[in-house]
Specification:
Blueprint (H helix, E strand, L loop, with lengths): L1 H52 L6 H11 L4 H22 L15 H35 L12 H31 L3 H8 L4 H11 L8
Helix pairs in contact: 1-2, 1-3, 1-5, 3-5, 4-5, 4-6, 5-6
């Protein structure tokens, strides 16, 4: 079971890197469009003025039409797809690394055994939400795939092209959650509360500091 879990963690790490690349790509696309919208009209107008000095007949309306075709008319749509896919592909890694946020005002006052069972209940409650999310995402995706529905935009992109990888991120999240529930339950039944906490518990302050230092490539010294 630990080998399967390690494989899920490795896959989720790869997915979160891809998700981050998608979010960065979406930001670059939006930035490029904003810059083009700001700069190109001035450049087109300047070019028309220079040509006018040499006696060329410049059609301002034609220039504006050319500009509208040149700009990224579908940047908002493409960036939206990238953002949705990148978000779903990041969820499993957050779960595997216990990066999700929970309110622990009362939680920290209980013993290890009670905290372990509360962690299991929290995972099961999350599982109800994830199951509903996967079901609805599957329903939308399969309908658009079978009916070959396209986006109601100039790009006319088949919706299933974006929704299939979006759904895959939710499925990976559900699989990771299922194995987390199973591993936590086995650890609790066997009385290994430390292992249960390492799977589903709230990360301690020392663990968060160690994780941040590791991400920065800094080795923490033990005193």
């Amino acid at each position: 079971m630990d080998r399967i879990w390690n494989g899920i963690v490795a896959l989720s790490r790869f997915a979160v890197w891809c998700g981050g690349a998608m979010l960065l790509s979406a930001a670059l696309i939006v930035t490029a469009e904003v810059l083009l919208r700001k700069l190109l009209p001035s450049l087109v107008e300047m070019g028309g003025s220079l040509l006018g000095l040499f006696g060329a007949n410049v059609d301002a309306a034609a220039n504006q039409a050319w500009f509208r075709q040149f700009t990224f008319s579908g940047s908002d749509e493409i960036s939206g797809y990238l953002f949705a896919i990148g978000t779903s592909w990041s969820m499993a890694y957050v779960l595997c690394t216990r990066g999700h946020i929970r309110i622990d005002a009362l939680y920290i006052n209980f013993g290890a055994r009670v905290r372990g069972w509360l962690d299991l209940v929290a995972l099961l409650a999350l599982g109800v939400f994830v199951a509903a999310m996967v079901y609805r995402a599957w329903d939308v995706t399969i309908i658009n795939f079978l009916e070959y529905n396209r986006s109601n935009t100039n790009l006319r992109i088949p919706l299933a092209w974006a929704q299939i990888p979006w759904l895959a991120g939710f499925v990976l999240f559900a699989v990771a959650l299922a194995f987390a529930v199973l591993r936590t339950f086995v650890a609790l039944v066997s009385g290994d509360y430390a292992k249960a906490a390492s799977i589903a518990g709230v990360a301690s302050q020392d663990e968060e500091i160690a994780s941040e230092l590791q991400s920065l490539g800094i080795e923490r010294r033990q005193h």
